[in-house]
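Record 1 of the preview.
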Amino acid sequence: MSIFDTTSVKPKSFSPDETIASLNDAFSNDQGRTESEQEKVKTFGEVLSNIRNDQDEQIGFTFRDLCARPATTIPCLVDPLLPACGLAEIIGEEDSGKSLLMLQLLGAIAHGENSFLGLPINASTRKVLYVSTEDNPDAIAVRLKMQTRMIATENAGLLYGGEMEPDELKDKIEELLFSIQFALVVIDCFGDIFTQEGNDAGKVRQELRRWQGLASKYNTLIIIIHHIPKAKHGQAPDKTHALGSGSHSHKVRSQLTFCIRNDRHYLVATKNNYMSRKEKEMAWELEFDENRLTFSATGKRVPKSGLGSTKGTSRKEIDWEALFGSDIELQRKTINARLKENGIQSGDEAIGKAVESGLLINFKYGCYKLQLSNFPDSMEAGNLESSEE
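->
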């Protein structure tokens, strides 16, 4: 048969398992190599395998060693949002519910639930830790009682930072990590663990690298809660919106953005090294239960580009006293509904401006009342724009 005659030659097809097995054989087989070549391969592998970190853990590997590992997918704590190990971040506007969402996630893991917002949980342990530098234990207790309906668990713990200096707080967290294997540690918030210039990219990156190293050392996921600047409120979510330096999105493996638009909450993976670009363009729509302080997925996915402020051609004056009428306090969704009736489409932006200027008080989550002592006869919505019919 001629070597050019392919009519009687049929290529052999391999199943995935057979392909992997043949690759493993190839990696482990020295047949065909000279003694000198075998010695070089072994010497190179030995040199790499002897490179260790301060904890005497191997950090050098040949590609053959890596391919022999059983992992075929990136381990995720919440698939596909959060990796099982490393540093992540959730950012968003003030009063958007970031802390509540993270407490709900901690509770889901601690109680052994299989999913979070409809996404699979793959936790190696049920132990979780919430580090609060803002709310004291009593404030956290009230939230937990509403979220869990008085169901207590010893799998979740609180570390109250209070007036601790950042280095002291980090040492306390490491003490706990050394003694207990946690699936997740949430730190609320970045502004209290980093007290230097927030716009200094080098210093921000160095600080985030410290926490990334801690997560890697103890094989856990650390999520840091952070804010976005007021200038970005109402804009479509973007990974560059973290308050201060853009180094945040450069250093974290996963960055989530949480926002409210017209009484709906939206969760967006604005940075994720393991998700496709198409997947990151879509936000998860969530519904908020004001009685239980919990979120649930509606099942809808919407483009994140559509979550920017509604643009129009005219400004509207808002008579807040008339809008409240005889009501002493109003829920955000009620305010949004009344604003819509008056032609104001970007209600969340209007509420944010009113709070910022002292016209409204956010005295509890999602609930507002008038600050009459600061009230002028009327308020122009500044740069607030609405669409006209």
